[in-house]
């Protein structure tokens, strides 16, 4: 399926589907092996582990999608000199689409490990291939041409929950409105779904009724349940900017790295609509775009990412240069590592407002993406918070909403927000900045969600109530450190992780700058006491921690990666 001239993807088609020259294919040959397929043979299937990247030498292959309702939708045909893969094949994730030989076809197959080696060894060619793999994933997301099919009411609480999970993890998906599709409505009825319950059809045909995020992730192949016996060089808990930076630097230097996060990659930075003070991006970049690039980069160098996977408890009883750390996951599995980075960040803080929990996902949001922006188009919204993330969200939402009521408890924004954002908010006519103001009440019902919000000026006591269906909360966060309780990592009075001199122990142990009170356990980003709580600072700490980890592993004797000459 060729994009129409009006399609924004049309201008990128030459980058999405580059034609390799004979000389370039010759350079690729040493990384792959030849294989042949008779006409009608399946090369790969959606939902099954992808074998890697295919380079077509002769013949043609049709790429199609199954929509879960018995329909097969053509996406594209590819021929000699083209290659078949998308970014998931860097780590051997399940294929998102089907591929069938339209005629007898000869290919080169480059498995995931060799694909990563090719991209690193052949820098210019690797750049073209990586760009194509990323753009293909972006295309699948934008046109909804692959991934699980979500069937139900588009605006139900659970549908928005599942869409948000898939979107924040860069997973393509297709939404079918059961109110407009008879086949979809019949499928809901067949599976006994309630009116507001979504049904998910995975690529392998499995049907899930209103699944949890973890169950959905397993169904689409994001997460497996393999027992992990290996001893990793580095385990990173948290896939925000700090954790991803550490993963990129550590994996690129040869360490065997695994990264886990209980929600999605990007952390709280992923909620930023536009970051404009990050070095190297003068026009700004969204938090999701920045995190998405880091996520791909970490996979390119061989880091393994487990999302969603929740850290339950850390056993530090065997910590030390010649020992190991053992992390228990919520699913019961154990991960073992020589060193560990705490990059678990913080969880969203919830103001003490009656009925708030009742409307989470049904009018109350903790981030502002394109999905939320569409939902509140032309409406008045309330945003609570005065930090940079709140400012970025207010400016972004103002481009879609009729009016943004921005509630600030303090006397101004200067203490918590960058100057460029303060100036932009002041210049935006449909942002109403309400100082000395707090949210006090919410109203609505189970059927339609949030309907009204009331706030109060703490100086005058005057209250104002408006018909509000969309509330955005950016009121800070508390450190995610509950999983460290049994490990003995020293925390400050607010629960943030102490490092360096502040983490020195009575027995005389003097940790390195980003090291905790437990040898081999480091902390970076928002979870660390004294961190600057900025994306740039988090990335810098993640990179710096890797240098310290090399020094730590160098003391571990012949078993460490450092002693192997890496």
Strand count: 29
Number of helices: 13
Question: What structural class do helix, strand and pairing data support?
Answer: alpha/beta
The CATH topology of the largest domain comes to: FAD/NAD(P)-binding domain
Walk me through this protein's architecture.
There is one protein chain. With 566 residues, the chain is of the alpha/beta class. It folds into four domains: 10-143, Jelly Rolls; 149-219, 3-Layer(aba) Sandwich (Glutaredoxin); 231-347 and 479-564, FAD/NAD(P)-binding domain; 357-475, FAD/NAD(P)-binding domain, CATH 3.50.50. It contains 13 helices and 29 strands. Strands 13, 14, 15, 16, 17, 18 and 29 form a seven-stranded mixed sheet that branches. Strands 20-27-21-22-23 form a five-stranded parallel sheet, covered by helices on one side. A four-stranded antiparallel sheet has the order 1-8-3-6. A hairpin with a 5-residue loop joins strand 25 and strand 26. The chain is globular. The two termini are 46 Å apart.
């Amino acid at each position: 399926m060729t994009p129409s001239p009006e399609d924004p993807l049309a201008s990128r088609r030459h980058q999405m589907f580059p034609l390799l020259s004979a000389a370039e294919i010759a350079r690729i040959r040493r990384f792959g092996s030849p294989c042949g397929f008779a006409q009608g043979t399946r090369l790969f299937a959606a939902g099954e582990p992808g074998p890697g990247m295919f380079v077509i030498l002769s013949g043609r292959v049709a790429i199609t999608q199954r929509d879960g309702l018995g329909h097969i939708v053509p996406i594209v045909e590819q021929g000699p000199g083209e290659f078949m893969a998308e970014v998931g094949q860097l780590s051997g994730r399940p294929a998102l689409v089907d591929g069938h030989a339209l005629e007898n076809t000869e290919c080169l197959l480059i498995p995931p490990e060799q694909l990563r080696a090719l991209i690193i060894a052949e820098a210019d060619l690797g750049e073209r291939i990586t760009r194509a793999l990323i753009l293909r994933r972006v295309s699948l997301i934008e046109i909804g041409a692959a991934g699980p099919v979500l069937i139900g009411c588009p605006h139900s609480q659970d549908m928005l929950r599942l869409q948000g999970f898939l979107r924040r993890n860069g997973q393509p998906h297709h939404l079918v409105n059961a109110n407009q599709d008879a086949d979809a409505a019949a499928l809901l009825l067949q599976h006994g779904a309630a009116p507001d319950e979504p049904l998910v059809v995975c690529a392998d045909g499995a049907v899930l009724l209103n699944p949890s995020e973890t169950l959905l992730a397993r169904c689409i192949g994001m997460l497996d349940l393999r027992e992990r016996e290996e001893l990793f060089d580095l385990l990173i808990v948290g896939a925000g900017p700090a954790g991803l930076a550490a993963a990129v630097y550590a994996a690129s230097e040869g360490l065997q790295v695994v990264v886990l996060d209980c929600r999605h990659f990007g952390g709280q930075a992923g909620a930023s609509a536009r970051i404009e003070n990050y070095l190297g991006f003068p026009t700004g970049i969204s938090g999701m775009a920045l995190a998405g690039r880091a996520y791909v980069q970490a996979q390119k160098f061989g880091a393994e990412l487990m999302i969603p996977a929740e850290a339950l408890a850390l056993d530090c009883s065997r910590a030390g240069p010649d020992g190991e750390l053992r992390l228990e996951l919520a699913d019961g599995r154990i991960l073992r590592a020589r060193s560990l980075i705490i990059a678990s960040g913080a969880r969203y803080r919830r103001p003490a407002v009656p009925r708030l929990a009742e409307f989470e996902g049904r009018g109350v949001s903790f981030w502002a993406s394109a999905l939320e922006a569409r939902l509140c188009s032309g409406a008045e919204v309330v945003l609570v918070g005065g930090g940079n993330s709140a400012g970025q969200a207010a400016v972004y939402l103002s481009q879609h909403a009729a009016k943004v009521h921005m509630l600030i408890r303090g006397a101004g924004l200067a203490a918590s927000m960058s100057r460029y954002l303060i100036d932009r908010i002041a210049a935006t006519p449909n942002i109403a900045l309400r100082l000395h103001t707090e949210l006090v009440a919410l109203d609505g019902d189970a059927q339609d969600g949030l309907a009204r919000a009331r706030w109060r000026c703490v100086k005058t006591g005057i209250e104002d109530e408006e018909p509000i269906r969309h509330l955005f909360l950016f009121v800070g966060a508390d450190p995610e450190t509950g999983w460290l309780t049994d490990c003995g990592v020293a925390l400050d009075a607010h629960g943030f992780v102490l490092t360096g001199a502040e983490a020195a122990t009575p027995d005389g142990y003097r940790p390195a700058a980003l090291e905790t009170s437990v040898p081999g356990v480091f902390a970076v980003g928002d979870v660390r006491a004294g961190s600057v709580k900025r994306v740039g600072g988090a990335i810098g700490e993640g990179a710096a921690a890797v240098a310290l980890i090399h020094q730590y592993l160098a003391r571990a004797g012949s078993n460490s990666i450092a002693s192997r000459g890496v």
